[in-house]
Amino acid sequence: MGYRILEAEDIAGHLRERGHWGTDDPVVREVSDGNMNRVFLATSTEGTRSLAVKQALPWVRVAGPSWPMSPERADAEARAYEQVAKVAPDKIPAVLGYDSDNYALVMEDMSDLEVLRTVLNDGAAYGSGTSARVGEFVAQLSFATSDFGMPSAERKALVAASVSPELCKITEDVVLSEPYIEHEHNHWHPGLDDLAASFKTDARLRTEVADLRHVFMTSAQALLHGDLHTGSIMVGAREDAPVVRVFDPEFSFVGPIGFDLGLYWANTLVSEERARALGTLADHGDQLRLSWEAFATEFRRLWPSRVDTFFDDAYLDRFLRRVWTESVGFAGAELVRRIIGFAHLADLTTLPDPVPASRRALLLGRELIVRRAELTGPDDVRAVVEALTPT
Ligand code: SR1
Ligand code: MG
């Protein structure tokens, strides 16, 4: 049977046909939230069982049919979950099945957890463990799917299978190009007019962004999540133990590891600016360091198995330096695009006055992009943040 767009009334039948549900009728509600897809929750009437169904639409959900997009992106998401399940099953939702005809995933219902961005925007701090788990997630997925963790022929097959031209093009455009040119997708608060205009004529900035764009397009280091912002992470507790789950890897492809770290860092830095503006600053400024240290520690822990091929730790040190520098640059690009590009962040847009925090974040983004080679560790990034003046 071919692809059809599922509505709430189709979900029970869809689950039943695939053996995920019995004869009873679940209560189904749509909980779509992200920019791209539809998500439904099917819950038994007594509330004891619940599943999520996520379907890719043939367009960008928030834009509608005027922005067509192949639903094949769900294949990339299913493939990414399959890879992560081998090395970090505790950091993703349980996937019960994938219907490739309808580009629909059936997954565990995570509505007992909360989206990290929502938790932060409601005023909470990160608390211990979240950023370390995210850093470990990136290390575990990227090491296992890099040439350090996978036999050469198997990896080349993964690289080929993970090619995702349409979704990569979105990132190449909305993250790594459009904010620096005139484009109908771009929009911003009028209080940022001067900065938005100056970024389009800033030769140094545009050259560095071009370099990051080219790295994104050509550096096939490892399988990425591809959209690792704080809206792609659920947090909470189960049986009194903290839980962190990374979800929504539909932008997954084999690319530069720093893209995943950089996106996360940018979103932590935006959360910091929000907290600073509201006077609720807590542990926000520690998160880049915590995730980087956890990433590097885990990557180093995994490394000994590949010493034969890459000789010794000297190359590991060089490789991690490269990942660091590129992560800083991608963090800068994510900061910029979230403020003067297409997809903005509630962290800033819901502030009583979004302008001062947005200006700081934009200027921070520029610094991270153009000065990434001279920023050699988390302390250097902190120094850049601390040097930003209230604007
Ligand atoms: C048209 S898509 C805009 C953004 O939404 C997704 O969540 C990605 O972040 C993408 O860049
Ligand atoms: Mg998403």
Automatic annotation (TrEMBL):
It holds the Pfam family APH. It comes from the Bacteria. Its EC number is 2.7.1.100. One of its GO terms (molecular function) is S-methyl-5-thioribose kinase activity. It is an enzyme of class 2 (transferase). InterPro entries: Aminoglycoside_PTrfase, Kinase-like_dom_sf, Methylthioribose_kinase. Residues 28-286 form the Aminoglycoside phosphotransferase domain. Keywords: ATP-binding, Kinase, Nucleotide-binding, Transferase. Coiled coil: none annotated. Gene3D superfamilies: 3.90.1200.10, Phosphorylase Kinase, domain 1. NCBIfam families: MTRK. PANTHER family: METHYLTHIORIBOSE KINASE (PTHR34273:SF2). Homodimer. Belongs to the methylthioribose kinase family. This is S-methyl-5-thioribose kinase. The gene is mtnK.
